[in-house]
Backbone:
């Protein structure tokens, strides 16, 4: 019989609330014969304040035993900027070699967008997750003085770039439009830019059916608001991916519906699924958060574990729920979760 | 009697056409007693192909003699990516210490925006121009092999950050809303992020009337499409500034109207003014380019040289011209320039 052994990290702020709904929908959608086991982990601001710990080696060993990880959100204004981001979230992405950071953007019918007209948006960003300016390389000298110098080193390897580029080509190949766009800034960041561009062109030769395209990151932000329909699959570096996926989320219905997967394709380590949004402390505990992004992240999780039909059922349920929202009274986090749980079983 | 000794760099593609209109409007707006001298420089793709040169020491010496520089656009597909960008444009910005890269965004009445509703957009981005990931520091080892490693080093100094932050505070102080937003990614790029944040907070204490705000660059792209009215003055690093000003241009009427100044505030070196758009080789030589961005860059140039009334006359002329475009037949580059030249004298 089948089973899913899931690590659950509700985290801070609205993380708790949205993860509860994600699990509700997950339980509802799974067939009877699939045994779902979950274990909660208390990472985040509270644990940091209590113990000074963000993510220990023992934590990593424990998490490693799971099939996948569901994360709500990590971050609180009471913790200095960077401590939980670098000490927990990025540490986990790096430790578990989550090199494919998958962020789909689809503007669903009936969903409001800040863009005029009726843009067609349906693309996936494959963001590199373990290199680039995110490595933490760099440093500071003469800190706090008038002569301080702070550096940040973007590290890019042929190994790291090729595997994510290859993953993106395979995803493009599997989609109807078969189009892949490389987003970088190779006219200024020429060292990293040439590495990315050369590998992209080399791998392209192995995927003759995939149409390819290159766009500078600055121009990409223009297209994301003037012509988002031009994108099918985008592959890009860690920092550019961070920036353009927030913009992509904004134009395709907002971060209330933006899901993401931090994927280790080999399966050597568990992959982690999380909404793109943060912990939103201003609305935490009020039942105001939209759990849809977390629920859609559960769909990505199921697809990753091979439950394609169940993933599609969740996506259809969210799509139907969103389509019926206009003009209705706002519902609480739990009410939306309840409605989605009903839909996936219906 | 007064005089302006201007270096003119038409450059590549549409650069030639739009600069001609910029000069037309400049001549028209200047009072009789101001003597305008211009000297053309042939930098760009043609010269690179003919001589292999992008910008020599002798070129820099010659440019140094001018009061200011007007640039059209540099770049052509026949030149490998990075050669003209690093070898000319960035070389010039760095050599002339253009540390304040000024990019205003204002959605003028009657101008189309990709955003729904009627957003109020009127802000200025002060982009640092001589540091960050643009320094060209970094390198490549094992180039072209499976073990290649390419690095890009973002260099940030207290000296460099403080002077641009100070400039931005002074600009915010001089505007009615007196609001300054720092855009960075200090939760991930903690070395550079802390330097920027600490200096920002330190200088803030000297400007008690200025309201301050901090936003991560990824979130800033969301606000630029969902709530651009929240911004008054933004100060940010070289790369983040590059990215968000293209997006800012897109939402506030497009790169057809986005102007910029590469400013050396001390006046030790001439400042350079250029449209944010590129050389657009696909429409070059056809009289299709909108010269408004270049004309508005001429306004920034005049303001920088102390001709405030003339700068305002140009801005009013462009504003009036744009307001009357809807429903009219498209005009050529020269026709728009002619119309603006008439308006500024009217
Ligand atoms: C919180 C932060 C470290 C993170 C990132 O920059 O990757 C977030 O913005 C994201 O996109 O998941
Ligand atoms: C052409 C390129 C080097 C330049 C930059 O990145 O600064 C351009 O995008 C700009 O914004 O002026």
Residues:
């Amino acid at each position: 019989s089948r089973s899913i052994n899931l690590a659950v990290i509700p985290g801070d702020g609205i993380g708790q609330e949205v993860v509860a709904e994600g699990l509700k929908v997950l339980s509802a959608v799974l067939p009877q014969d699939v045994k779902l086991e979950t274990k909660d982990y208390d990472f985040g601001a509270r644990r940091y304040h209590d113990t000074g710990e963000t993510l220990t080696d023992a934590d990593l060993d424990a998490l490693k035993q799971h099939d996948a990880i569901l994360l709500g959100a990590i971050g609180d204004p009471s913790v200095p900027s960077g401590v939980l981001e670098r000490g927990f979230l990025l540490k986990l992405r790096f430790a578990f070699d989550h090199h494919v950071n998958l962020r789909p953007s689809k503007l669903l019918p009936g969903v409001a967008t800040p863009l005029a007209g009726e843009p067609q948006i349906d693309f996936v960003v494959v963001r590199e997750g373990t290199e680039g300016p995110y490595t933490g390389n760099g440093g500071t000298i003469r800190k706090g003085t008038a002569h301080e110098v702070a550096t940040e080193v973007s590290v890019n390897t042929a190994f790291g770039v090729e595997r994510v580029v290859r993953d993106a080509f395979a995803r493009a190949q599997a989609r109807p439009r078969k189009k892949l766009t490389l987003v970088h800034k190779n006219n200024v960041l020429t060292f990293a830019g040439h590495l990315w561009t050369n590998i992209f062109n080399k791998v392209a030769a192995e995927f003759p059916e995939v149409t390819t395209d290159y766009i500078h990151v600055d121009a990409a932000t223009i297209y994301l608001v003037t012509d988002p329909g031009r994108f099918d699959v985008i592959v890009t570096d860690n920092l550019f991916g961070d920036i353009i996926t927030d913009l992509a989320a904004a134009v395709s219905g907002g971060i209330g519906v933006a899901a993401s997967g931090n994927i280790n394709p080999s399966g050597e380590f568990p992959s982690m699924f999380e909404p793109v949004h943060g912990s939103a402390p201003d609305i935490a505990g009020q039942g105001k958060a939209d759990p849809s992004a977390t629920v859609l992240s559960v769909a990505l999780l199921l697809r990753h574990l091979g439950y394609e039909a169940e993933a599609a059922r969740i996506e259809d349920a969210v799509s139907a729920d969103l389509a019926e929202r206009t003009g209705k009274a706002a519902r609480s986090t739990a009410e939306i979760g309840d409605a989605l749980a009903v839909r996936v079983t219906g």
